[in-house]
Please model this.
Amino acid sequence: MKKLLKILCAAVTLCVILLSLGGCWSADEISHKAIILGISVDFADTPEKYLVTAQIARPSQLKASSADGENAYINISSEGVGVQAALHGFETQLSREIYTGHMELIIFSEEIARSGLTPVLDYFYRSSEARFSTPVIIAEGRAADLLDIQADLEQMPVSSILGTMSNQDSDIIMSGTTMGDLLREMVTEHSAVTLALFRVNGKRAAMEKAAVIKGDKMIGSLTIDQKQYELLAGGEYDEGVQVCKIADGKVASFRIMKCVTKHNLKYENGQFSADISVNITGQISGITFGGEEYTIRAREDLEQILRDFITRGINDMFSATKEINADIIGFNEMLRRKYPRDSKSLLENWDDNYRNFPISVSVAATLTGTGAVRERVK
Amino acid sequence: MSSVKITKWQMISVGVCYMIGAILHLSEVSATAGRDAWLMPVAGLIMFVPTAAIYCLLVKLHPQKCLYEINEQALGKTLGKVFTFLYMLFFFHICTLNTMQAEAFVSAYLLPGTPVIVCGLMMTAFCAFAIYRGLRAIIVIPFAFGIVSGAYLLFNFLQSVPQMRPEFLRPMLAQEPRVYLHAAHIEATVIYGEIIGLLTFAGMLEKKTKFSVCFIITMIISCLYLILVHLRERTLLGDLTPYVSFPSFGAVRMIGNVTGTLSRVESIYSLVMIAFSIFRVLITLWAVITALKQVFNLQSYTSLIIPAAALAAVYSMRIYASPNDSYIYGLNTTPFVWTVFTFIMPLITLVFAAARRLLTKMPTPNTSRKLPEQGAEPSGAEGF
Amino acid sequence: MLIVFIFFGIITISSLITPIKNGRIKEIAIICALISIGLYYGIRFAQGEPAWSPLNSLEEWMINSTPFNYNA
Model:
């Protein structure tokens, strides 16, 4: 009898454990989830409300070819006093519960970026489903329009936008800024960061500028070229193309294979300064001038052209950032790390002191190749 | 004298697994020391040296005795039982705090929507079952589990190396001394100090094995592990570290390799962390039950297991109004409260034990009544 | 959730069977004390109301009335 009771107790306990640990309790089937791939946030027409648009995947339409013309996604919008309230509004429109764990892109409108991102970001970084590695971009105009573009080579607009950004990894113009990078900048005093700024042209979107975010507000923008020079100066440049337009319509294009940037901060006679040295290794990818023969002198001249162009570009970039008072390279952090005590007074008023912070740029360029042909064919 | 014997490496594996279980509440040290948090395990260890010396001396003066038996032999029957009762309350609070934090983590990240009480009851039910099965479950499993999990944790750390940014660690040691003292105090009492639970196993160590050797190896391995955890937190999260609820988990969530083939690696990491947390709950629950048995001179603790486990599960729901409150108190008052249990009380015990030795000039006195056996197997349980 | 509570309640109370059979008064008293305390916290949890926590009370007192805290 005792043995039977023991077996019965063990059996009941096992059943309880199986039912509890098998995930049957409040089961959440993936087929009952509306998987949000991208979210955009705009100000709604109703005052003090946000318009949140979500791009939700339709798994049944995610095929290699969609002959019936059905989209592989749906865009759904909802208004609310906050992002959470708006997302809650989706529940009244959808047959499934929303799931943001696979969210791949967050888009804010320029209007929201200029007014402050903190109220809208709060939901995303508190959410246990959203991840710090999710890219964040700004839309010039309505953010919801970016989710409606024509995705020529991809199945979904979000994939198209992400592809455009990741395409830059090999031909870098813009590096993707994640939510974690943005939050890190927001908690660090006097820092600034750039986010990709997309513009919708008809049914297509192009990444034309970089939005400069300081604190939690957008304070200005950089052109694509300025962004490229920022990456060069910041040491984040990997590979890319540099097109140098010289006088009289002459153009020299270079393929940059490698870039090593060093920052040297100095404190001399009570004055701080920064020296940036950029070492570039590249190849000639196209020139419209010069003799047919390849000479060492010709190579040196081209290297000089590249050097001058990049030096001028980086200096122009620094002028632009000093004008809007945005230390996007992060000199304040570098100074704090190298001279924690001496730089205290300088960094307390960094917003004013950055404008006059002396930065000298030196560029060294080495051209190691001329492409598939050695000499110019006339 | 205990009838169950454990080897040196079993003791070390129990200690290391117990210390790794602290990972879910390292946020206090990260918030206090900021970018220098990775140095605090060393500073905390230095601050912990006197405490460690006290533990080792206590065990040396009372060979083959566990913490509760040492209390009674050093302090006398009445005061010893008072001390044992206080330790029981201390271990009970550690048990419920760990249960609460594990529940919060599980319900936030692993099983959202599951009632928190269910997580708590499942964890404590598992611990109760392990205790009922006997010491084999508590001692042997960490050895195998510890090696496999340790290898995975090392692999996980290596995965995060490409994304680490060492500049987030600078400038080093540029903060006020008060900050380091505060962080080291938290590390020494709240993180390291809870290793006093290992003294409840001291009586089971093999005769030829020195407790101090096991203890020192445990503390060194734990210190190295904590350094790696803090390093990864800081170099991945940077200034975001104090803002994240579970920084070590938040850091792992940022791991993604270059090719993008491996992502969301935090799923396995979180399971390993939960397992270590449950092990910590298991050790402290066992310490509570054996303390109850010692205080009230019971012959067996079997019938106490389930009520104690149920109480731990339910109390963990009400220990604080919110799990975030434990973070606030952990920053401010818990180091002082824990100092009483982890340093002052053992020091008093040591002073009494040393005084007794000096006065009587005898080895540890025999009590007139035979103390209940520590580690005696409950009926129906497997032995070694 | 009620089923879980009832199940664990039954198991907890069933732990009284062996001590009652063997007449171990001390064990019965301790188990009853543990069950009573557990019931207090369980009922407060089920009602969603706060319960007295010795550790919480001690730490609040330390913060408000003693210098033994880092907030002081």
User: Anything to note?
Assistant: The two ends of chain C are 43 Å apart (CA to CA). Chain C touches chain A through two residues (CB under 8 Å).
